[in-house]
């Protein structure tokens, strides 16, 4: 036990851990004045090889790398899994330390607590309304709090947030866009890297940066998969062994669809129907299966230009997403 504590202390000495927004901004400005550019990888922690691949990808674009670890309450509705989102901060620091390329970790307590911004608090202290299934609000919204000090400013990326995950998660993308904008304003990076597993998120952030003239270059990094094909996700840990095997129907369906499209089957209705059948037969519950144009995310009837097939499905209590770009 003592050895583990010493290891954690050594890790914090090797990688600078920054907890206050003002300190993070000062760190970035100091290095930028010295002529160094900064790449940023935002995460919610519980890091896996997919996250680490983003960090290694980022190293090609900058002198310094900042990784944030922050579970954003603004993107969860009260009925979702904020309280059970996996966390392992000491383990995350160890992985980042072993990467040998991370210069700073930004780990704020609560980026929405404006009254106590300068007072440290544990992440568990974030207010979480009852899990009552309310739609259209996030875990930050509190109708009983009318003191005028709460968070009221949200970024919406119009049409791009409406389909795919936006249908079943109505507050998700406003929460994502808003927290990413806040992090960009705090970290002030030159480059930010996002994984293409969250394809809609990547496109939304890219559009937000374009439309609001952020001085940040957005890089999309390819999906990292387990050896059996399952897309890496922090939520995979909640799958039972049986559910995990069944969940392979998602990636298998994607690879098969790509093969069929390259073989001449371009009718999207038939391709989607086949995928729905395979995942349902494996015990999954479909949220959506869509084939959309890669940049606009508009649904298409035939594959006649670059598209991406996007899937969201439930296995047990775990909602998984995956996708595959198809270019004929």
TrEMBL record:
Q: Name one GO cellular component term.
A: cytosol
**An MF annotation (GO) of this entry:** ATP binding
Q: Which reaction does it catalyse?
A: (R)-pantoate + beta-alanine + ATP = (R)-pantothenate + AMP + diphosphate + H(+)
Keyword tags: ATP-binding, Cytoplasm, Ligase, Nucleotide-binding, Pantothenate biosynthesis
Q: Which NCBIfam families match?
A: cyt_tran_rel (TIGR00125)
Q: What is the lineage of its organism?
A: Eukaryota, Viridiplantae, Streptophyta, Embryophyta, Tracheophyta
One Pfam family name is Pantoate_ligase
Q: Which family does it belong to?
A: Belongs to the pantothenate synthetase family.
What is the protein name stated in its UniProt record? Pantoate--beta-alanine ligase
Pathway linked to the protein: Cofactor biosynthesis; (R)-pantothenate biosynthesis; (R)-pantothenate from (R)-pantoate and beta-alanine: step 1/1
**Protein's UniProt keywords contain Transcription regulation:** no
